[in-house]
């Protein structure tokens, strides 16, 4: 009897000890209420207004921009323009999936610096069955896309690439080996209704790209080109810059406004040591970020547990809130950014159309009955400045010289697209459809700015009276001689 009582007491003590330990663990968990408050997750969005604006944007793109894209094969020019247009792109030819996609936040950096832990913390996934796996060793070997869905499920890369309603179908070009390293996770989360997170494999400096089995840098570039915000994460023990990290920062050139540097796990250091590490981080990155204004650096510890004792708790908390506000600003401005990117895309398509038209006109002017077409056009494409191809565009249109693409890109472009395949802009008009140039100029100068103004002023974007009735006007062709 005494043995039974003693055993029961022993069990009770074990249970009490376990409960006390659990309470201690819970007590050191950080308060997450500021995350919900910053993102206003409890507030209801005006879904109808957002959907109307997206629908209007899709209509402008499909009726005014895409026809010139297709007529002058803009997507094939983009394949030869590696550095002509640095910055955010909407793909070779913008798709409905890219237009309707949510803002993308990309996490880059060395292995085991806390990228996956940071995503777990932002979404509150810690100690849940759905948290991203973390550890001291390299753990993330896939590109993981965390997005909103009606239920929790994982989506294979081959399924994501095959689904045209998503914006990931262009990833098929990187091969099946890569698609096996691509995974999507869907879950019903309020924050994911407004943003998509992408976790990437950590950079390992002693690993060669071919050992990954797919073009790692090319895949990173694809995500970089489409990201609205890029978090490059470091921790105090991994500040060395090797060849792979150096290549990554070369790929980020032109995207400095989207880059945020994060010095994670900062509470592992005393204040004096943290100052030294902060200086060392800038010393390492200075040769790689050659801009007047360096990216914003956030110093904190992004995981669910409380800051270590005797550290700069208030500083870390303020830094975390600043980062959350930065991220929330991108989410709040997603519609404005999308309109701006579509307009930028339209400007590039227009410039391409004007240049192809000028090449076509010059070719026809230089051709005679006895001329060899190949020799004539080779002379034009090899030395476009001799025939004032680019200068005439600057003189006759309101195109900035800084927006002109690389001349060499057109040598490759016309190498696979014969000049005889293209009509001049004067021949790109129809009674019902109008003129391609006038439609894209109207979109750039009137329709897209008007849509942006309606978003900023809170008005419901809708069809203009002429778009609703057709107005019965015959399209004018300013390129056709009377």
UniProtKB/TrEMBL annotation:
<dbReference type="GO" id="GO:0005525">
    <property type="term" value="F:GTP binding"/>
</dbReference>
<dbReference type="InterPro" id="IPR027417">
    <property type="entry name" value="P-loop_NTPase"/>
</dbReference>
<keyword id="KW-0732">Signal</keyword>
<dbReference type="InterPro" id="IPR051943">
    <property type="entry name" value="TRAFAC_Dynamin-like_GTPase"/>
</dbReference>
<dbReference type="Pfam" id="PF16880">
    <property type="entry name" value="EHD_N"/>
</dbReference>
<dbReference type="GO" id="GO:0033017">
    <property type="term" value="C:sarcoplasmic reticulum membrane"/>
</dbReference>
<keyword id="KW-0342">GTP-binding</keyword>
<feature type="region of interest" description="Disordered">
    <location>
        <begin position="458"/>
        <end position="482"/>
    </location>
</feature>
<dbReference type="InterPro" id="IPR031692">
    <property type="entry name" value="EHD_N"/>
</dbReference>
<feature type="signal peptide">
    <location>
        <begin position="1"/>
        <end position="20"/>
    </location>
</feature>
<feature type="domain" description="Dynamin-type G">
    <location>
        <begin position="99"/>
        <end position="340"/>
    </location>
</feature>
<protein>
    <recommendedName>
        <fullName>Sarcalumenin</fullName>
    </recommendedName>
</protein>
<feature type="compositionally biased region" description="Polar residues">
    <location>
        <begin position="458"/>
        <end position="467"/>
    </location>
</feature>
<keyword id="KW-0547">Nucleotide-binding</keyword>
<dbReference type="GO" id="GO:0033018">
    <property type="term" value="C:sarcoplasmic reticulum lumen"/>
</dbReference>
<dbReference type="Pfam" id="PF00350">
    <property type="entry name" value="Dynamin_N"/>
</dbReference>
<keyword id="KW-0325">Glycoprotein</keyword>
<keyword id="KW-0472">Membrane</keyword>
<keyword id="KW-0703">Sarcoplasmic reticulum</keyword>
<dbReference type="InterPro" id="IPR045063">
    <property type="entry name" value="Dynamin_N"/>
</dbReference>
<dbReference type="InterPro" id="IPR030381">
    <property type="entry name" value="G_DYNAMIN_dom"/>
</dbReference>
């Amino acid at each position: 009897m005494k043995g039974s009582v003693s055993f029961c007491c022993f069990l009770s003590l074990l249970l009490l000890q376990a409960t006390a330990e659990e309470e201690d663990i819970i007590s050191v968990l950080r308060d997450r209420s500021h995350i919900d408050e910053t993102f206003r997750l409890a507030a209801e969005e005006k879904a109808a207004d957002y959907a109307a604006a997206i629908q209007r944007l899709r209509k402008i793109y499909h009726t005014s921009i895409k026809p010139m894209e297709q007529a002058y094969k803009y997507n094939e020019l983009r394949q030869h323009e590696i550095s002509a247009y640095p910055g955010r792109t909407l793909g070779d030819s913008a798709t409905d999936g890219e237009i309707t996609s949510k803002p993308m936040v990309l996490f880059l950096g060395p292995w085991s610096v806390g990228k996956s832990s940071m995503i777990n913390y932002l979404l509150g996934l810690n100690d849940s069955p759905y948290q991203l796996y973390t550890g001291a060793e390299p753990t993330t070997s896939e590109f993981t896309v965390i997005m909103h869905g009606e239920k929790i499920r994982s989506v294979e890369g081959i399924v994501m690439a095959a689904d045209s309603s998503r914006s990931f179908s262009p990833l098929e070009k990187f091969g099946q080996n890569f698609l096996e390293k691509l995974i999507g996770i869907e879950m019903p989360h309020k924050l994911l209704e407004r943003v998509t997170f992408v976790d990437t494999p950590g950079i390992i400096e002693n690993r060669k790209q071919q050992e990954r089995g797919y073009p790692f840098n090319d895949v990173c570039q694809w995500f970089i080109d489409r990201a609205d915000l890029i978090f490059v994460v470091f921790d105090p023990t991994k500040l060395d810059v090797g060849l792979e990290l150096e290549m990554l920062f070369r790929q980020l050139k032109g995207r400095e406004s989207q880059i945020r540097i994060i010095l994670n796990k900062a509470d592992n250091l005393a204040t004096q040591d943290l100052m030294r590490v902060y200086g060392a981080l800038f010393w390492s990155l200075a040769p790689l970020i050659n801009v007047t204004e360096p990216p914003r650096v956030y110093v904190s510890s992004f995981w669910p547990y409380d800051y270590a004792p005797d550290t700069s708790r208030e500083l870390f908390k303020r830094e975390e809130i600043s980062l959350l506000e930065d991220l929330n600003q991108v989410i709040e401005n997603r519609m404005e950014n999308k309109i701006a990117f579509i307009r930028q895309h339209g400007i590039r398509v227009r410039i391409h159309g004007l240049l192809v038209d000028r090449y076509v006109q010059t070719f026809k002017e230089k051709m005679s009955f006895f001329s060899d077409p190949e020799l004539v056009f080779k002379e034009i494409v090899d030395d476009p400045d001799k025939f004032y191809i680019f200068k005439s565009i600057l003189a006759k249109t309101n195109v900035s010289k800084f927006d002109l693409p690389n001349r060499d890109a057109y040598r490759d472009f016309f190498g696979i697209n014969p000049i005889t395949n293209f009509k001049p802009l004067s021949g790109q008009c129809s009674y019902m459809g109008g003129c391609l140039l006038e439609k894209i100029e109207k979109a750039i100068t009137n329709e897209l700015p008007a849509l942006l103004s309606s978003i900023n002023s809170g008005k419901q974007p809708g069809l203009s009276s002429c778009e609703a009735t057709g107005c019965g006007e015959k399209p004018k062709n300013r390129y056709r001689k009377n």
